Amino acid sequence: MRTVLLTGFEPFAGDATNPSGDAVRLVADGWAGPERLVTSVLPVAFNAARLRLRELIVEHSPDVIIATGLAGGRAGMSVERIAINLIDARIPDNAGDQPVDVPAVPRSPAAHFSTLPVKSIIADIAAAGIPASVSHSAGTFVCNHVMYTALDSGEPGDRAAGFIHVPYATGSAPEGKPSLPLADIARALRIAIRTSLDTEIDVSYAAGSIW
Ligand code: PCA
């Protein structure tokens, strides 16, 4: 039986909630298989998140890893294409660490591309009426670090791994910030899981940006 690992994050930066962790809990509650779904809400801390993710990978040998986090201010589901080997934390993480200008993993490649079917996921989420787009930067904070860790762990070809940033959830978004209902964020993640399991070769269509 194939195993999917889906992660979200706990709240950070003084927020009361994190829609990524909340949506992951919703997906876990409603999961009916047939694949095995393992979920985890990770700490927003560089070292602890990396350690926890690596433990989960060793324990469960997932075939698909979809890590998620909040990108407050983005308007829809934002499927990340690339993780870079760089930490430049603008704020301290939840453990009080604020590394600046250091590699995520010393002596590892400068970057890793997502091995999820990024464009198929975006097309399928959009077809369900939920806004989704490709992103070419997961930032330089804990989300990028977790995406890099997921892609830097294990032999390439073993599994599909990547990251999806979610917007604020309606009701907990700061004034004037874009949001989606939490139920739609969870629905989009369910679609991303199914598409990742079912797609062998990603579709190709123009979805890049000029700047
Ligand atoms: N978003 C942050 C870290 C945790 C989260 O949900 C990020 O984008 O790095």
UniProtKB/TrEMBL annotation:
One of its GO terms (molecular function) is pyroglutamyl-peptidase activity. The active site is at residue 143. It holds the Pfam family Peptidase_C15. One of its GO terms (cellular component) is cytosol. One of its GO terms (biological process) is proteolysis. Its EC number is 3.4.19.3. It catalyses: Release of an N-terminal pyroglutamyl group from a polypeptide, the second amino acid generally not being Pro. Gene3D superfamilies: Peptidase C15, pyroglutamyl peptidase I-like. It comes from the Bacteria. The keyword Cytoplasm applies. Keywords: Cytoplasm, Hydrolase, Protease, Thiol protease. CDD domains: Peptidase_C15. Belongs to the peptidase C15 family. This is Pyroglutamyl-peptidase I. It comes from Microbacterium oleivorans.
